[in-house]
Design goal:
Layout (H helix, E strand, L loop, with lengths): L1 H32 L1 H13 L7 H17 L3 E5 L2 H6 L6 E5 L5 E10 L2 E5 L6 H6 L4 E2 L2 H9 L5 H4 L2 E7 L4 E7 L1 H7 L2 E5 L9 E5 L5 E6 L11 E5 L7 E3 L5 E2 L4 H10 L4 H20 L2
Parallel strand pairs: 3-6
Antiparallel strand pairs: 1-2, 2-3, 4-11, 5-8, 6-7, 7-12, 7-13, 8-9, 9-10, 10-11
Protein name: SspI
């Protein structure tokens, strides 16, 4: 019974990934035809870093969900609240719904600076122990395939991750999608690297046949926090394993008017908010007509 449930879960994941890939194709096409809309939205999101280093992540969840609702007519989206998020089986922040099929696609949004990127928290702490069963240097192709096929590695493919990457120094950003299938296909060896050089816990690093870094699984024990475990990669050193929804890096400008609007909204009444909302909705309609 347990095996049957696991198989059903994997099949469900696979179906969701197919739907997610189709959604990404549609999003890429939309952005290619309307680059200014995405540049505007990402600029507004990363402007939130001026309020706080963590603020932009929460705003990204709301903004991308609303972007889909307003501009992508074949899809709708809902933001999964934090309480619901913690109760969910998956790591989604938003759920996208395909208008015709009503298929729900859970998506985990990651707003990270260029460099290290966490793809999955591995909340059940199974990936690292599974690798330890094979030793410190894993090079047998059959063993590598068995690892990727193992239930403990379902998080390698079960999370539909959409990373919003920013390079604050150069005021540029990118939506970069990690290619899990290519990563699995290209993995030639996996090596355990012990703690040290500023690293508190050991990691297993995945490399291709040319010894190029692909990704890593960080220590998953109880003493590790969420940023010290799970599946990670790097948008700099593993750039060949990403595809860009935005067609590469795009420059953005910080929107100081948006910050002023927020500050005024926090000390004004709901009546004022309603009038401001009406003006914003009128502007969205103007942008839609300009598509």
């Amino acid at each position: 019974m347990v095996d049957e449930e696991a198989d059903n879960a994997v099949n469900s994941v696979t179906d969701t990934r197919k739907e997610y890939q189709e959604f990404l194709k549609r999003l890429t096409l939309f952005v290619s035809k309307n680059p200014d809309l995405m540049t505007m939205t990402l600029g507004n999101i990363f402007t939130m870093r001026l309020i706080g280093n963590k603020t932009h992540g929460d705003m990204a969840e709301i903004a991308i969900s609303e972007f889909i609702n307003q501009y992508m007519y074949d899809f709708s989206s809902k933001h999964v609240g934090k309480d619901l998020f913690r109760a969910k089986e998956h790591e989604e922040d938003i759920t996208v719904v395909e208008a015709l099929t009503k298929k729900e696609i859970p998506i985990s949004l990651k707003a990270y600076g260029v460099g290290p990127l966490q793809l999955s928290t591995d909340k059940n702490e199974r990936m690292f122990p599974r690798l330890e069963q094979e030793g410190d240097d894993i090079r047998d192709r059959d063993v590598i395939d068995a690892i990727f096929s193992d239930d403990s590695f379902t998080s390698f493919q079960s999370v539909n991750v959409m990373p919003l990457i920013y390079d604050e120094k150069h005021k540029r950003c990118n939506i970069m999608i990690f290619d899990y299938d290519k990563a699995k296909r290209d993995t030639a060896f996996i090596v355990k690297e012990t703690a040290g050089s500023g690293r508190l816990h050991p990691v297993y690093r995945f490399f291709d046949a040319n010894s190029q870094y692909i990704c890593e699984v960080r220590y998953g024990g109880a003493s590790a926090n969420a940023l010290q475990r799970g599946l990670w990669t790097n948008t700099k050193t593993a750039s060949q394993y990403f595809t860009s929804i935005t067609g590469g890096w795009i420059t953005y400008a910080e929107n100081m008017t948006l910050l002023e609007l927020f500050s005024h909204a926090l000390v004004s009444s709901q009546t004022g908010h309603q009038k401001a909302l009406e003006a914003v909705e009128a502007d969205i309609q103007r942008l839609k007509k300009a598509e």
